[in-house]
Design a protein that fits this description.
By secondary structure, this protein is of the alpha/beta class. The protein is built from 10 helices and 11 strands.
Length: 249
């Protein structure tokens, strides 16, 4: 059974149909990419999955449970976390403080996170482990707003992982990251825990085809093609219209 799926998912903005009859199935532990041209509806679908938008029709299921009407924080508690195309960080916090706060929120003590960090060695150990995994230990005491943008993107993924999700949605994790910092993003995405199911939205085909075991192509709000990377790469419609001939490489 898919860990995350949509059945006939639709979203209308006035007379515009941004998502139409989207039937997406993401298997447990998958590395699944959602791609398509600008305006295809990818971010709309992610916003529907995470509860930022309410669908006009259809259903969303997480581990077989209907979550269509749940609020975003309720979905987080059920095991879904996300990153954003533009990061949503507290720029005045340090990475250590931000990760500590995320863990405390997960444990229901977010308002007094500093006490939890100061009195619970297991929490301190988890903070350090996350900071190490995301190459943030050298910057753990720096104000987030002063960090290079690549480090900020790493921190956003770290905060999502601190929620201990079973499903993680990554919305263009390398967007805006300078070329010399992208390798850290690539390595981090590749090293995400194997027991976390990942749905990736990404324009960078190098990231998509090095990461995904399955790819869904969205066009004009409709699921256009779904299959393994080799099948998507060979499809002449995808190559010619959406991805370009670079997929021959």
């Amino acid at each position: 059974m898919p860990i995350l799926q949509t059945i006939g998912l639709e979203k209308r903005f006035g007379g515009i149909l941004a998502a139409q009859n989207v039937n997406l199935a993401v298997e447990p532990g998958a590395r699944h990419a959602l791609i398509g041209p600008n305006g295809a509806g990818k971010t709309t679908v992610i916003n529907l999955l995470t509860g930022v938008l309410r669908p006009s029709g259809g259903r969303i299921e997480l581990e077989g449970r209907d979550i269509t009407r749940l609020l975003p924080h309720q979905r987080v508690r059920l095991g879904m976390a996300r990153t954003f195309q533009i990061n949503q960080l507290f720029l005045d916090l340090t990475p250590l403080e931000a990760v500590g706060l995320a863990i405390s929120e997960r444990m229901g003590t977010g308002g007094q996170w500093w006490r939890l960090v100061g009195t619970n060695p297991a929490v301190v150990e988890e903070i350090v482990e996350i900071l190490e995994r995301f190459h943030l230990t050298d910057a753990m005491h720096e104000r987030t707003g002063n960090l290079p943008y690549g480090k900020q993107r790493l921190l956003e993924i770290a905060l999502a992982i601190a929620c201990r999700p079973r499903v993680l949605l990554l919305d263009e994790p390398a967007a805006g990251v300078p070329e010399d910092e992208r390798h850290e993003i690539l390595a981090t995405v590749a090293a995400l825990p194997a027991d976390v199911t990942v749905l990736l939205i990404e324009h960078d085909m190098d990231i998509v085809f090095s990461f995904a075991g399955r790819i869904s192509v969205l066009v004009n709000g409709t699921l256009f093609l779904d299959g393994p990377p080799e099948e998507v790469a060979r499809d002449p419609r995808v190559k010619a219209v959406y991805l370009g001939e670079s997929l021959d490489a």
